[in-house]
């Protein structure tokens, strides 16, 4: 924008400017499916992050893209390319020299040929022995000189990216300047190691030698990171060669460094970088996946191989951060710059969407962290419960009892045609017509006002507007249903997960809790989970709960807790529903600890049936939903039904929600009183 004018151009990538903003509800709805299948909140969020949202790639897609990039890097060629190139140049130079000697019949020519025949097979030793050879062929001399130039540039390129190209055709003055740069760099690193302030020294160094660093680091720490990663990659390159290749290349590099007069300076630089970044992989592990030395793949030069290993190390680190399978993992650990370098800008947009998911869920009040653990909030659980309930009602035919698609169903019952003034605590629907009529009459002239004046007056609002006050509100009178107190007992034992029924049971419990609290608020509901022992569960806790990897089905303790909870509501109709896939195998001892035994001890069965009898004497019906048809479970449940008079249902696990919701609606049917 310039001088108040806007300029437009083609969209060049990045987030779609016309896309709808990210909605936390979209992410929560995706998580709901996972939670209702039995996963915890953390597992559901991790699954969402792995799969992605709204067409964006998830962590799994990004990791696969990184793996493809790693395979591409490894396929570039073999790590011994410099050795192969030195051998090629050496063989070429010797061949050219032999061609020049062949026509000469002199003894000197034969002596030279004998000297060439006696060259060692080790290219490093052969190059060294030919250093003082008096070449007859000028072409051979030129080829041999290419070896020294190649080694100088490759060695420096393995330490400083881009040197191989920058020093092509370098003069003695150019090489001298490289030496000045290395010595100045060592002085700068020494100051930093001593704890001195190096900000101005770094800026001065970059002004003087910035052309040697195409990455253009912003500070000394970034420069050290860049150089240390490359130096470590050069060390790993040597580790990736065979012992013979490693020795040959090391000798060639040492000779080149000596020729440049940089042996001490580069050794000092390597030690300083290793001390500054000891956490890097400095060649302890041999790199894998590159071409076999015996095959015909092209070889990488020393600098290119170092670059490949440096990039591979960055990709390995990126893959590890994307895996998120280490303690304290966070998507903030993923470096956007590394993502952009490896996969492009579109991958950064995908990453930012994933990072936004968790922040938006927390900002919208759907998730929270407690003691370092991710938990769903009551708001999120209500939405998940509504999802579970809607799923159940979709499965129930529209004409069957229990269809609550209508908006006015629930606590109020059927309308009886009369109305009364609203009172605090009323749950009956507002009679809108009478409410507005009361407000109009109150605001009208005294002759039109009703005989019963409101307790406080008020000036009429603007012409044509109606101002409502509390005393104007009227509610429609309805049939009044008697309240019910419901205890849903859910088996948490590990067998539920093994049979694949834990998620169904969790979904059913959340759906029933939502139905009772939203459609029948005068009813009370308690969720009780039991495995080796029993405990009351808050909906938030249940939503984030996984099946428990413990032995024991302590129905006795669950029935005991249910009896205590139901005693709080003496005026309500008591309802107990049990969802289980196994007979009782645990009970509480006198000291409050659980006792487990398989097969069940007679004492376990007796104590459980004693709790059944106690509830029966109080008029509490117990309906059992069996998720398995094991004969011992069937016999026990039938004995419960005989003693209590409750019902036994053996639904298909996938239809459990329908059975439980229908049973709840059936149990409260017929208990109506008209107010």
UniProtKB/TrEMBL annotation:
Gene3D superfamilies: von Willebrand factor, type A domain. It comes from the Bacteria. SUPFAM superfamilies: vWA-like. Residues 483-661 form the VWFA domain. CDD domains: vWFA. This is VWFA domain-containing protein.
